[in-house]
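Re: the 901-residue chain
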Amino acid sequence: MGVRGFSFRSVLCATVACSLGFATMGQAAAREGVEVPRAPGESRSQPYSFEASPLPDDTWLSLVQEEMAKKPAQAAAIAGKAKQVRPHLSEAIAQLLEQHAPVALEGTEEAIAAADEGVTAGTTSGAASVGGSSTALIAGGLAMATGGALALAASGGGGSGKKKSETAADRSPPVPAPEAFETPEYEANWGLSFVGASHAYAQGYTGEGIRVGVIDTGLDIDHPEFRLKVVAPFNPVNAWEGDGDVTDVEDSDGHGTHVSGIIAAAKDDRGMHGVAYNATIIPIDIHLEGPYVALGERYDLLATAVHHALNSGASVINNSYGGNFPLNYRNYSSDELREIYPEIFEAFDAVVEQDVIMVAAAGNALVNPGQNPAFPAIAPILNEDWKGNWIAVGAVDQEGEKTYWSYSCGEAADWCLFAPGVQIYATIPGDEYQALSGTSMAAPMVTGGVALLREAFPHLSAPEVQEILFRTADKVGPREIFGHGIMNLERAFAPIGRLAVPLSDKVTGKAIALGGSAINVSAAFGDGIGEALKGHKVMALDHYKRGYLFSLSDMVKSSVRESRKDVLHRLKLFGGIEEKSVRTVSAGPFSITTSSRLRASDPLIGSSPYSRMTFAFSGEYFSAEVSMNPDLGRAFGFRETAFKGAPMIEGQAFDQPHLALMETGFGSTLGFDLDGVSTLRFGAYTGNVETRQAPLLNSTPTMYGAIAELERNFSAVTLRSSVGVVSEEGSLLGSVSRGAFGEELRSTTFFANLGTTVEVAPGTKLTLAGSLGQSSFRQNSGLIRSGENLVTSSFGIGLSQSDLLQESDIFTLAAGQPLRVESGKVKLLLPVSRSLEGEINYRRVSLNPQPSGREINLQASYGFEVMEGVSTSLGALHRFNPNHVSGRAETLGMVSLSLAF
């Protein structure tokens, strides 16, 4: 519904119960004789749709080819439509598709090859096909306040609102930012930017496959903006009068062409484009000229138009016309009105039954605009059953202010919305464009938004689409004026409510909050898991069960040792602080050894979460120990033998790294002296795994296991070898998952260690140590399902020299590699899309978690006594590729001073 200056016609149509009038602010350029030249080669005689084209096959094929070349991304859809219209040309159409959509074909072959190789598996939920082919759910991307890439995970053809099946790819292609769509053609209509339409385009939605009924003054079907975009044109006036061409929708007024352009004018680098620029228009011309027609017959005409739109597959119907309802509806019940106007009630009932949305302009008046919208925007007041399928639309200007001539929402506030309606630049007859104003221009802005949502979320009902637009609208003023506010497509396409990752085969099944889902990887994996997950996405559902894809790599957290936060650990190791707190009390063969818990004042440094205590018994040929919070890695490693008393900044390479996973717990060892030079030791342990994410988990990861070690001592050589097993509940090599990734990891690691310490000269020791392990795990729920053949390694080489410069000093040089994952596979089961029927489609993914780099650390230290009771240590550590991340380096220096008193 527009405003055409202060003309008698516009005032009459907006304020008097005449007929369904049309008006537009401003004068049409065509009527003033303004001629806009056509581009070279353009012709108004070109066919406007596949269905209506009378051209010979060869000419028709050339037009199809031209359309594919212009829109390669929609080539497959164009081919499908063309085959339906002229099936005898299917082979030729397929050849055209192969020429203009090679990327799509190559992508399909690549996906099949990848599945055959077992790298990834396809969706596990079957999706029914439509017309012989599956409806593809292509996902785009969107930036979220919570961080990470997000994309819509469900899509598919909309059409009439009837249910179809849909499938989806597990990975989204590179997604352009919304700014990439904000071209001069986009900016020509300021309303597109105002409502945030580019955010829908960035997610891959353009109205493709959606049919929009436009009940108006007809359409210039030869306008270049509507080539191949028009279907089922209809003139109910001719049909009603019984003469004339019922497909003749020539737009003698220009109003309908302008409205249709706002909805679906093509994105073709000319003029402007519509909100849903790939949608299809069903033009319905109900414009009457000549003598007055009875109102009852006029509403019969409207009913005929609505039925035609519904029967032609419209998902949304635009009504940029209006007038007062002929009767004072307050004096009649709904049933009484139904008896008086049965045709219009039946038509509007059919809108609800077929799950279609009716969008109607609120109305204009240059003097005293109405407090309630005109008919049919006010229609649900006649029957509340229509409310969920109706949107009345008022107009705002570039500042977001209600125009003085736009009707308010009033009694239609429950189903009312505002949109840009001032100086909206769009198509007019004669291949031209003009900026016009009116609620007639605001309504198609909303209609285009509905078309985008219906394409993106075909599983949503019409009332749900309406509710999303209302819920996400910008609230700008009193409800009785603005209703739900101003349409905001950026917010409408963003998730609403709690996001949850589905873990069952239905959208209504089990789901876990996305916000609490993460993988916290230990240093052994470095950046391997994060890098392997790049490009992989997982779907989460919002309140309306809309699927959004999120980057998995953004959910990987690192628990590697950061320099400052790890100061306490390194100070204990380097300064020997813990050793200096050791106290041993002996009584015959029995002894009790304790060491104190260490605290730090800086909260970033932290504190030791435990104290140690060991009960020991020593016999002539055997020994036994029971310990609380033992340092198992050190107890069975080579550090004590090679560097006892020496300051070290990093010692893991000389420990038993798999045993060092235990932070707190209990352990017991039993040792046997075999022949005076050989000792056999057995150890068993159980406790909690060292992890900085334990407070975020439902339960702390635990571990238990056993080790057997054989040590042989010769005159100057010590050989030690061991084998063992670690079983973790809730973790894998210290890595933990939570939320949707699962918290029930059960992993088993078998390991072997071999090392030697050789006294190459008096006071000089050379130590070599190495460790290998193999891990596997299973999980029955969550995204992470299993892992196998995860090989880990660590090694170290060190040299220590005592009494170098003074008595009791010690100098060390060491190089080592901390525990690192060398190879293996981690398998995930990822929800990647949903179907129209609510089924969840999954994708199996197999990853190689090997990190990008290999940490090699070099360290040197020197410890000596300054004076009696005062000792100091100096040390430096350089780490190549720290935490196994390629291309990084880190150098640390430490000084400690100890006072004994």
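The two ends are 94 Å apart (CA to CA).
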